[in-house]
Specification:
mainly alpha; two-stranded antiparallel sheet; extended
């Protein structure tokens, strides 16, 4: 398959009905599932798992801020995450990244090739993803066969 044919295939609108029918055929009768609103406890656990870091993405919020203001921000952050879940909207600022050049510690600092780019994403967006991952992991545990071990806890 050539590169252009792959591009053309990717440009096509996917047939979601065929994908869903194929999954139903392979997985059998799976009960319907949807995201539920998260709890303040889940948000607190996800904040606890964050690494202390002062770097921040385009929203200007660092993990350091989230961790140090944890008890003050849990109620509003939980409300924001739940609004995102119920509305089905993920704000664009949570999807964008800020790209920063980092010097590689060798060669001239005047040459662009001696820098590597890093992308700093929204830490609140990562927190939302972490909270949703709790629900997805639990749902997949009910559906996936026991002989599939990759990317699963324990």
């Amino acid at each position: 398959m050539s590169f252009t044919s792959k591009v053309e295939k990717l440009r096509r609108t996917p047939n979601s009905e065929a994908i869903i029918d194929g999954l139903k055929g392979r997985l059998g009768d799976v009960s319907k599932w949807d995201l539920r609103e998260c709890t303040a406890d889940e948000v607190a656990r996800c904040i606890d798992k964050l690494k202390y870091s002062s770097s921040c993405g385009p929203d200007g919020v660092s993990n350091w801020t989230l961790k140090n203001l944890k008890f003050e921000i849990i109620p509003p952050i939980t409300a924001i995450i739940n609004r995102s879940i119920t509305s089905g909207k993920f704000p664009s600022v949570w999807k964008t990244s800020r790209v920063c050049p980092i010097y590689k510690k060798r060669g001239s600092k005047d040459e662009a090739g001696n820098y590597r780019p890093i992308s700093l994403s929204s830490n609140i967006g990562k927190l939302v993803e972490s909270v949703i991952r709790i629900q997805l992991t639990a749902a997949f545990e009910d559906v996936l066969p026991n002989n599939i071990h990759g990317y699963r806890p324990n």
